[in-house]
Design brief:
Layout lengths: L1 E6 L5 E7 L5 E5 L6 H6 L3 H7 L3 E5 L20 H13 L7 E5 L1 H11 L7 E4 L3 H5 L2 H13 L8 H12 L3 H9 L16 E6 L8 H7 L3 E6 L10 H11 L2
Parallel strand pairs: 3-4, 3-5, 5-6, 6-7, 7-8
Antiparallel strand pairs: 1-2, 2-4
Helix pairs in contact: 2-10, 3-4, 6-7, 6-8
InterPro entries: AB_hydrolase_1, AB_hydrolase_fold, AB_hydrolase_sf
Protein name: Alpha/beta hydrolase
GO molecular function: hydrolase activity
Length: 251
């Protein structure tokens, strides 16, 4: 595996891990305050997919991980994360229908936005994301922005304090992360009907943070919902997580 980089049309340097294999390229998009390493590599998902023969591209989102983290709010216009994904696909020279893509939490929401902007993968995995987070996630995004500000001084055990602790643990830049999640754009329910790619909507049985995955699957033309053990924070560590993604993508 090697770390590569490319520059977006607005000049931001984004880095991604590249793990080549004999099979088609699969792009794995991590969640909020996380990174490619934490989300996909540390718990074995990348190794499992690689063993199945897939070629993996695992970006760190703008403001996260090893990618550049601009401090200026104007470097995070609406849908910037989705447009960064489109730029990555162009950089990788992936033709429509020739690659797969999977996203977790914020990564899943970013994948949906990229799909509405013209991304055309062969298959899609949306993990850790329900219908509410897709069509009405604006308030949740604003809550996370404020939690990054208030969290360090919040009472022990408060949700805001837990967000701040996770941000500190991952080393994510709080200012950049706040701008990044603030770039979220809700997707109209009717727009989901235009997402034609076969899709797996995946979440832990105890994950209800962003609404119903069953409702999200029902809103998509060709989707199935799957519940596995876990909740929103720990499902990526479960062996069933990687296996479900692998089994869907190699079908």
């Amino acid at each position: 595996m090697e770390t590569r980089e490319f520059h977006t049309p607005d000049g931001v340097c984004l880095r991604y891990d590249w793990l080549p294999g004999p099979g088609r390229t699969t792009i794995l998009v991590h969640g909020f305050l996380s990174s490619a390493r934490l989300n996909w590599q540390d718990y074995g998902t990348a190794a499992l997919l690689s063993a199945a023969g897939l070629t993996l591209a695992m970006p760190d989102l703008r403001g996260h991980g090893r990618s550049e983290a601009p401090q200026e709010a104007d470097r995070y216009p609406p849908d910037v994360l989705a447009r960064d994904l489109l730029a990555l696909v162009a950089h990788l020279r992936q033709a429509p229908g020739s690659f797969d893509i999977a996203g977790y939490s914020l990564g899943a929401r970013t994948v949906v936005r990229a799909l509405t902007l013209g991304l055309r993968p062969r298959r899609v995995v949306l993990a850790g994301m329900g219908l509410t987070g897709i069509v009405d996630g604006w308030a949740r995004s604003r809550w996370f922005q404020q939690a990054l500000i208030d969290g360090p001084t919040a009472r022990p055990g408060a949700p805001e304090r837990l967000v701040a602790r996770f941000q500190q643990m991952t080393g994510t830049d709080a200012v950049a992360a706040g701008h990044a999640i603030g770039s979220h754009v809700d997707t109209p329910l009717e727009a989901l009907a235009d997402i034609a790619a076969p899709t797996l909507v995946l979440a832990g049985r105890d994950d209800h943070d962003t609404g119903s995955i069953e409702a999200l699957a029902a809103a998509l033309p060709d989707a199935q919902a799957l519940r596995i053990p876990g909740d929103h924070m720990n499902v990526i560590s479960k062996p069933e997580f990687g296996r479900a993604i692998r089994d869907f993508l190699i079908a």
